Amino acid sequence: MAEIAYRSQVRIERIKGSLRHAFLPEEPQPVKFGTHGAIAQHYGAKPGAYEPHATTIDYVVAAAAG
């Protein structure tokens, strides 16, 4: 079995509702995660209840595409 080359140290902090802050390596500020559009609707968020932010799936898709 090969040695582990890298282990990501990430911390997630729930702020309110679906809003979370992700503290990522090498990023000086936390990254905001939340919901928007159809995803917010799917989870039953009332329109205007929360400020829209990119979801975790948006970041996964961006990472896979990049």
Our Rg estimate from Cα atoms comes to 15 Å
DSSP summary, beta strand count: 3
Helical residues, percent: 10-25%
- The first-to-last residue Cα distance is 28 Å
Largest sheet geometry: 3 strands, antiparallel
Strand order of the largest sheet: 1-2-3
Order of helices and strands: EEEHH
Q: What are the segments in which pLDDT stays under 50 over at least 5 consecutive residues?
A: none
Beta strand %: 15-25%
Task: Characterize the structure shown.
With 66 residues, the chain is α+β, with helices and mostly antiparallel strands. The protein has one domain (11-65). Helices cover 24% and strands 21% of the residues. Strands 1-2-3 form a 3-stranded antiparallel β-sheet, with no helix packed on it. The radius of gyration is 15 Å and the shape is elongated. The model has no long low-confidence stretch (mean pLDDT 92).
Short description:
The chain has helices at residues 37-42, 56-65; strands spanning 11-16, 19-23, 31-33. The chain is α+β, with helices and mostly antiparallel strands.
